[in-house]
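=== RUN LOG ===
request id: a7f3
mode: sequence -> structure
chains: 1
length: 210
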Amino acid sequence: MSKRKSEGVKKPRLVDKVGHSGVYPMSGPHPPGDAPAVWPGTWGQGKRGAAGYEDHGESELIVTRVVPEKCRDIMTKDPAFCQAEDKAAIAGKLMQRHDIGVLPVVENLHSAKLVGIVTDRDLAIRVLAEGRDPHKTAIREIMSQPVVTCSPDDDVEVVIKLMERHQLKRIPAVDKAGRVVGMISQADIALRIPDETKVAEVVTSIAQPR
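=== RESULT ===
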């Protein structure tokens, strides 16, 4: 092959293929350290390998028979939320759009700092039942506070005990800066915790009258 022809031939570039075993980007705080390797799993690729953490601190290792240990393992990431100065009607529309009954309330979109929580019951009791205009009533006026929260780094047992103690079906997860990064519901416990006895205890405890 001539020199001219060889100069026009591009060598194939090797690219890491993520597939089902690499690290994929998510959102949230970086936890300390690297993710533990859990058998069985397939080592994949990524900036820090399959054992690397990105944002929420999760690896895309495909594993089986693994019991969730931390709140980050079972929480719903990046939940919908509203701002304290938003009107009640906005909260109602967000609940309808996302088919949910509760919204974390943040100080503003920039900080995402948790300042309260508003539920569909709050809208019904504190707005509609009192004859207030949902288009003029700020969420700050009807939200509940302080809010019972957990950390993504807390053991799952911590959030379970909080639910039982306070009889709550949903608990926001906040990082060290107080920003909302997830939401853990009773359904998350039921679907992601393999211990059926423990799940039954949580459901029964929450359902008990105060």
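=== NOTES ===
The longest strand covers residues 114-119.
The helical segments are 3-7, 71-74, 88-98, 120-128, 156-166, 186-192, 196-207.
=== END ===
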